[in-house]
Amino acid sequence: RRPRCALGVAGLERPPLSAGRAGRTALGADSSARLPPSPPAGEPLQRERQAGEECGLARQVSAEVEKWVRVNRRPRKRKRRETEEVFAKLLPDQLLLLLEHLLEQTTLNPRTLQRLERTYHLPEQDAEVDRRLFKVRHRWCELVVKHKYKKAYGHVERFLQEDQAMGIYLYGELMVNEDARQQQLARKCFELSKEQMDRSSAEVVAEMLF
Fold first, then answer.
1. What spatial distance separates the first Cα and last Cα of the chain, rounded to whole Å?
2. Each residue of 71-92: pLDDT tens digit?
């Protein structure tokens, strides 16, 4: 069902096309009651179409999130006849939204994280091609840190060395978990990259680490 467009000014209805000259005259009699200029032809439909497409993309992400939640809940030993989840190919913005939803999950087991990594090739997302993919890598590293997915700690180390600016937030997350291995990783990465960091960023990170 299409949303109704707001036509005319408050309290006025656009006269029906069948009203013809009489309808136009009735409106024209009161100079203060003027309709706003009509938008360019096709503009409302274009906006409506764009909004519909965005809603469709968001619904697709919601469906994918539900699939991942189901995968995460499954026991290690599954029944043979159980249907395997098939995941859709996502656009960068959709992938980012998916990871943000998954960050809200209390627990993701290592098998789920491994499959997530392989399905979307998360460590290989090239920020030089699309800057949004940099945010995708950042969200992936957040998932790795939150759920202590040790197999992907190398991805976190690479991220911290390649982008010192956004890495500041990740340093904080590594330290707040109070996990000895994560804190060791944070200090190691800082020692390797502090010379390339600007002074203010280096000072902020140093205060968190030491």
1. 59
2. 999 887 655 555 778 899 999 9
